[in-house]
Amino acid sequence: MDFVQTDHILQRYPEFPKLQSLWSIFINKSDPAQLFAKNDNLRETFKDKTNKNVVEAEEEFKQRKHDVIVACKDFLEKYKNSLFEQQITSIQKKVLKLEREVALDNQVKGRTEKKQKKPRPTAFDLFKKTKKGKYLNLPEEERDRKLLRQFDKLDPGQRNIYETIAKDY
Questions:
Q1: Cα–Cα dist 30/28, whole Å
Q2: Phi-psi region of 101 (alpha: psi -120 to 50; beta: other; left: phi over 0)
Q3: Disulfide-capable partner of 53 in 29, 41, 84, 118 (CB 3.0 to 4.6 Å)?
Q4: Cα–Cα distance, 95 to 156 (Å, whole number)
């Protein structure tokens, strides 16, 4: 009696909607001569997303997914009283899964924007960071000019430290 309550028995209902695979739809759309040719390039053709038959098969597969969702809901309404709880939840899960797949198929696929890298700080930028408290009362341009003069007056050893840090930053 347990087998009768499982979702496997649903396949025995003649009206239970079944989704044909994308591969099966592609095979039906392909040229019969290509199906029985000696070279095994049918799988390669299927992977080519620009192929006319592949594009048509994908569109038909999307449409069939939508049709199966509607058919599952109709089937559930029609046989609601004669189905067991496990079978009802199985159909509901199938509908939810297909709806998620359809929603993902309908999303616009685009490239994600890359984060722009911050420019590497120069030795002078690092020097400015160390002098945060100096010349705060001056406008930014004048402050930079004074700090640049101080930076130019640094002895080569100190300046080399800033340049090394900037290179490794």
A1: 6
A2: alpha
A3: 29
A4: 72
Is 102 in contact with 65 (CB distance < 8 Å)? Answer: yes
pLDDT tens per residue across span 78-115: 888 888 888 889 889 999 999 998 888 877 666 666 77
Q: What angle do CA 125, 129, 132 make, to 5 degrees?
A: 135
CA 123 to chain centre: 41
Answer for the pair 98, 68: CB distance below 8 angstroms, yes or no. Answer: yes
How many C-beta atoms lie closer than 10 Å to residue 98's C-beta? 18
Residue with token string 């048509």: 56
137/129 Cα distance (integer angstroms) = 16
